[in-house]
Write a structure and sequence with these properties.
The structure is a single chain. The chain is 43% helix and 17% strand. The protein has 7 helices and 13 strands. The two termini are 36 Å apart. 36% of the residues are buried.
């Protein structure tokens, strides 16, 4: 595992490396870990996680960061495409959907090789809220949020089950505070940033899950930002959060059919992200 940071941040990198090594020691994990300020040292990597960029501040929308972070992501993506052409590139930088498109465009990698954290963590947040409401173990709940990692995200209640039972078939579903739950999911990042400065543990676990799924060739279906052509009711030509199969070869969106209100919500989300992505790309080209 290689940590890469900006020149002049060696002390921070050294501290992070020491802290992580202590974590691995406590877990009993055998792993060689090093750090560098030269991106060229990532040559021949299997997976590259790009979290570079300006972090969101309290009161900021993720999309406020778009152009500045796009310049950073584009530069990194070009380098990774050149020095690690077989790598899987995972984008964490916000706004993650347009940044995934920027990375795909500037890396020259195939669509299967570039994806973003997307709505994976949002889906897990909703899963936890549903489990608490029904008083069941979180592993009994299967649900997904698709679309933008942001305000226009769309919950797939039609694809939500508890213990294998469609959620609408449970009597308690009639009292489910669905809108309140989604508002909690949408504002979780802002809440955490406002109260402690940054989101760390949730995204960290989500990222680790994605990397483990790829390296383990697990073929799990997770909801991430990926380039789609027409997998969701013919809607496509955009990088956005959708269910996708992950393995060592990369990320493969899964064709799905959803309820009409969900299609309408997803189409709105796609149009929003497509417009932001187009604007960012045009400014980058200039």
């Amino acid at each position: 595992m290689l940590l890469i940071g900006r020149s002049g941040r060696e002390k921070l990198l050294e501290g992070c490396a020491r802290d992580l090594k202590d974590s691995f020691a406590a877990r009993g994990t055998h792993l060689h870990l090093s750090y560098s300020t030269d991106l060229a040292d990532a040559r021949e990597s299997d997976v590259v996680v790009c979290a570079s960029g300006v972090p969101r501040q309290p009161g900021q929308d993720r999309n406020d960061l778009a152009l500045g972070n796009a310049r950073i992501v584009a530069d990194i993506a070009r380098t990774i495409g050149r020095i690690a052409p077989d790598a899987i590139l995972l984008i964490i930088t916000n706004p993650v959907d347009p940044m995934t498109a920027v990375a795909l465009e500037h890396s020259g990698l195939e669509p299967r090789q570039v994806f973003g954290l997307g709505t994976h963590l949002d889906s897990m947040r909703l899963k936890s809220l549903i489990a608490n409401y029904f008083k069941v173990h979180v592993s009994e709940v299967h649900t997904r949020i698709i679309g933008e990692h942001g305000e226009s995200m769309v919950p797939l209640w039609s694809a939500t089950t508890i213990g294998g039972i469609q959620i609408s078939n449970l009597p308690a579903f009639s009292g489910l505070p669905a809108q309140e739950m989604m508002e909690t999911v949408r504002t979780s990042g802002e809440f955490i940033i406002r109260n402690k400065g940054a989101t760390i543990y949730g995204p960290g676990e989500a990222i680790a899950t994605l990397v483990k799924t790829i390296l383990g060739d697990e073929n799990r279906i997770l909801t991430v930002s990926s380039y789609i052509r027409s997998e969701v009711h013919g809607i496509g030509d955009v990088c956005i959060g959708v269910p996708a199969r992950l393995n060592k070869q990369g990320v493969f969106p899964v064709p799905i059919r959803i309820e009409e209100p969900e299609v309408i919500g997803f189409q709105r989300s796609v149009e929003k992200i497509r417009a932001i992505t187009r604007e960012v790309m045009e400014k980058l080209d200039r």
